[in-house]
Write a structure and sequence with these properties.
Largest sheet: none
Helix content: 40-55%
Distance between the termini: 44 Å
Structural class: mainly alpha
Oligomer: single chain
Order of helices and strands: HH
Number of helices: 2
Strand content: under 5%
Number of strands: 0
Length: 65
């Protein structure tokens, strides 16, 4: 059985700024392709696609560790 509490949990603190963009790993063709796609998206002002490329690049880089 659970017991009621008289206080709430501590607030979650979020950063105000996003993390820096991921850097592609030298010599990896997948990283290079994602970075090039990100640069093209940034050039045409498509910030949603820039964000998507950053997410994909971060996920891909987990395999390099």
């Amino acid at each position: 059985m659970t017991h009621p509490t008289n206080s709430s949990a501590a607030p979650v603190e979020l950063s105000l700024w996003p993390p820096p963009p991921p850097v592609p790993v030298d010599g990896c063709p997948v990283c290079a392709d994602l970075a090039a796609s990100r640069d093209r998206a940034r050039g045409r002002g498509d910030l949603s696609a820039v964000c998507d490329c950053d997410v994909l690049l971060r996920r891909h880089q987990d395999g390099h560790r």
